[in-house]
Amino acid sequence: MGAEARRTAVRYRHQQPVGMLLRELREERGLSQFALALQTEVSQRHLSFVETGRANPSPDLIGKLADRLQLPLRERNRLLLAAGHAPVYRETTLDSVELDAVRAAAHHILRAHEPTPALLVDRLWNALEMNSGVVLLAQLVDPSLLEPPVNVMRVTLHPDGLARHITNLPEVRAHLLARLRRQIAVSLDDTLADLYDEVAAYPGGTPSHPAPADTAADVLVPLRLRAADTELTFFSTMTVFGTAVDITVAELAIESFFPADDKTREALRALTPSPED
């Protein structure tokens, strides 16, 4: 789908009645009407009426359907508004006093992970905080890409960013683009759709040399970076805040990178300045 077609599709879905939107979300997840009705303990007839606009879903039913469809809090509010109900989830700014404990927890996790890279990102993949390991990797990136807000997808895939140092760029690129497509399908977010169109247009690159056979590539997509005449190999995890009932908190994630081999672990220690430096 082209850039304009993608944006048009996202905007069209924003304007859809709640029933049509629920039907599309159900079909995207491969659920039959009967299966969704059964799992949410509502009659198939009533769900059919909701999807065709003959019945308006109650806030309680929207909550049950959203649980089964695994919708983020922002999209749950959007469904409630589409059905004529008031949104129930608030969105607190990250710098508010109410989120002091959240910021402190994220800061602790990032620092505890040093010298290995870790960073806190929002739903748009903007970096909100990063540890010294990420700062070290940022030296490989053109300074123009590090002007706030620093976008992780852009920094990773831009030709002047990490992409020029990633030796398995096609695999990493495919993985990140697929992740963005999944987010857009659920969130209907114009900004994410624009970001996808931008980074998808960047060149994909080719590996500089064949990847070793006995590495993390057998079980996940590693990130292989050529830095200081050494290839660093990482895998990453995403950590979110459990039981979040605030949109801002629910959309935060900490991406933590881990050395995939001893060579990377030793190289990180060597590249990390000592406290005396």
UniProtKB/TrEMBL annotation:
Pfam short name (any one): HTH_31
Domain of life: Bacteria
Every HTH cro/C1-type domain range: 22-76
PANTHER family in the cross-refs: BLL4672 PROTEIN-RELATED, BLL5781 PROTEIN
Protein name per its UniProtKB record: Helix-turn-helix transcriptional regulator
Record organism: Actinocorallia libanotica
